[in-house]
Design a protein that fits this description.
Oligomer: single chain
Number of strands: 0
Mean pLDDT: 96
CATH superfamily: dinb family like domain
Radius of gyration: 16 Å
Distance between the termini: 44 Å
CATH architecture: Up-down Bundle
Number of helices: 6
Helix content: 55-70%
Largest sheet: none
Length: 154
Amino acid sequence: MTVSKLIARQLREVYFGKNWTWSYLQQHLEDVTWKEATRKLDAFNTIAVLTYHIAYYVKTASAFLDSGVVEGSDKLSFKVPPIESEEDWQQLLRATYTDVETFAQKIAQLPDERLFEVFGEEKYGNYYRNLAGIVEHAHYHLGQIVILKKLVRK
C-alpha cells in the first residue's frame, strides 16, 4: 500500500470509523440535532461551526489538488452558513461526507513522490504535511465536538 493510500484511509477513518481510537465524526454527529449543533455555550465554537471548519479545509485542499492553487482563509473557515432547520444541518453533514470521500479518492491517486513536493507555496510545506495535517486537524476538533456534545446535553 502506498503512503498516499494510507493517508486517504486515515482520513476516511476519522470521519467514518475503524481508526485506532475507535472514535469518529460520523458516529458522534449522527444523533446531534440542528438545535444541539447550533447551541452556543460560553465562548466556545458550536458543533456546527467546528463541523464546517474541518470540512472547509478538506474542501480547500481538495480544490488545490484540482487546480494547484491554494485558495482559502482561516477567517472564512469559521463562517458556517445559517443553520435554521434540521434539513440545513443534515445538508451540511451530507456535503461534508461527500467532500471527504471525494478528497480521499484524490489523495489515494497521488504518487508517493508528490508527497514531498511543495504544496502550492513554500510557506505551506509539502503535500505530506498538509494532507496528514488535515487528518490531525479533524481528530483535534473531533475531541472538541465530543466534549461540546456532552455539555450541550448536560
